Amino acid sequence: VQLVASEGTRIRERYGVELEIAGVLVRDPVRERPGVDRRLITTCALDVLDADCDVIVELIGGVHTAGSFVRRAIARGRDVVTANKALLSACGRELFTMAERAGVALRFEASVCGAVPVVRALRHGLAGDSIESIAGILNGTCNYVLTRMEDGLDFATALSLAQANGFAEAEASLDVDGEDAAQKLRILADLAFDAPVRRAWVTGIRGISAEAIADARAAGCVIRLVAEARRVAGGIEMSVAPRLVPRSDPFARVVDEQNAVLIRGRASGELLLSGRGAGSLPTAAAVLSDVLECGDRSRHFATDRAAVGLGAEV
Amino acid sequence: VQLVASEGTRIRERYGVELEIAGVLVRDPVRERPGVDRRLITTCALDVLDADCDVIVELIGGVHTAGSFVRRAIARGRDVVTANKALLSACGRELFTMAERAGVALRFEASVCGAVPVVRALRHGLAGDSIESIAGILNGTCNYVLTRMEDGLDFATALSLAQANGFAEAEASLDVDGEDAAQKLRILADLAFDAPVRRAWVTGIRGISAEAIADARAAGCVIRLVAEARRVAGGIEMSVAPRLVPRSDPFARVVDEQNAVLIRGRASGELLLSGRGAGSLPTAAAVLSDVLECGDRSRHFATDRAAVGLGAEV
Lengths: 314, 314
Known about the structure:
2 copies of one chain form a homodimer. By secondary structure, chain A is an alpha/beta fold. In chain A, 39% of the residues lie in helices and 26% in strands. Chain A is built from 11 helices and 12 strands. Chain A has helices spanning 2-15, 45-49, 64-75, 85-102, 118-125, 140-150, 155-164, 173-176, 179-192, 210-218, 280-298, and strands spanning 18-25, 41-42, 55-59, 79-82, 106-107, 131-137, 197-202, 221-232, 235-246, 258-265, 269-276, 305-312. In chain A, the strands form 2 sheets. Chain A has a 6-stranded parallel sheet with strand order 2-1-12-3-4-5, with helices on both faces. In chain A, helix 4 links the parallel strand 4 (79-82) and strand 5 (106-107). In chain A, helix 6 (140-150) packs across helix 7. Chains A and B meet through helix 1, helix 5, strand 11 and helix 11 of A and helix 1, helix 5, strand 11 and helix 11 of B. Strand 11 (269-276) of chain A pairs antiparallel with strand 11 (269-276) of chain B.
């Protein structure tokens, strides 16, 4: 909502489209939401899903409720923009097939690495090349915790600091156990490879001690939670695990809540993309770029008012 | 040609399209071109421009002849993919307007930073954000020369080595005088900013001595040719100039013929993209991705044979 307001003039001049928010679905209607027109707020999903709008933006998270909303939006011919990695990781293929049959767009740049345009890079930028491997620091919470442990904090203190600074949820187990990184890796691997998963394993950072960090330092290394998918005989191997990374490695220089992805293409060589992987503004920028590309693709709101339905529990 | 052959099966399976090369325009028909069907080779431009094909790929370089070919292709309703930074830098706005009126695509990912998808990142990935600045190492030849000078070579020897290794043309003045980087910067700035250029200056690396490199090292720095465009009062300021860069800076780690671009968005924060900025295979991968996206956009060859006309003097 904030970006639609601040970027509205530029978007109108450049893309010839006036973005209008048609409705905002929330769980708690009482909470103060500065800048949001109260008349747009509703707790009834159908008010937004069945509103007269061009694009539905799903920022609810979770698999079941969000999934039923996305399916209804697609069935009603709406383009959908989502930042929901859990949903795409669980039933992405089904939803993409459904969207393709309905002739609508399903965009999800914000689901992996916030504003870092890695989804676009894999979908379009590297369409002409065969991808050999993808490796990334995909979870900002874990990277923040590991960086603070390099400053001498123990795991629990570093995690509390991450929570106090808003880089980690109160319930951080999806992050620190590696599941969040694994979901993002699955989304990237689906984009990059047309091959079955042969092996997959996920280890988080919960067991990492201050001693392990000190030992790594003594060896000229740091520890990073690296998610990697690569071609092996007969398919793909996927792993999320803490790794010893030499200080000269590009991943060693990814600090705090930053994210980075290294893509190796057969013809393109190595590409590194890095930036802020989380936070409300980078995520909003990625969502808004997706909304604008929906219009660009279908041209159905290229010269007119585009109404956006927004489902968000913030 | 090589990539269309090696990636053909994957492209058919994934995108449902069979790419076929309809003609190849060259200057020298006698030269050996392994893998190219001799019957496709012609020295007559109209054989390719007026062939029954969906996309024209322009890899000729230069402004005048290439420009007239691109205009004719657009006028005949063909999508165009080009890697020609000189052409776009000189008359990009005219060509984009012409392509838009004709309802065809004009794609140019390969014109800046080879396979690094920075054009896509600015066109689409950051469409929802206001760009504040772009800074990059955009010329691989200069970066290779500067990196070799750090090893103790003087400018002339480092340049000869670049030429011997195929990273620099025999006539390297466009590279070492900064004009190549300036052309690429103009293309990126056109994508990022809707504002007039207030100031612009270009300095190359020709005057840099072995002593300057040693002085930089003593100060904990390296020298990099940095191209930057940023918002100033009333417009944009563009510069290409050698800069002292601290060893901890991301640009200091860009070595040899690598390229890198740092984009600062108001909401997105800093994004870094880096990779191989030149070379035939990375360039070909970027061109082929653009060709595939032409089909994706217009869907006019989504289920069929797509014929590609190729103008290339290699």
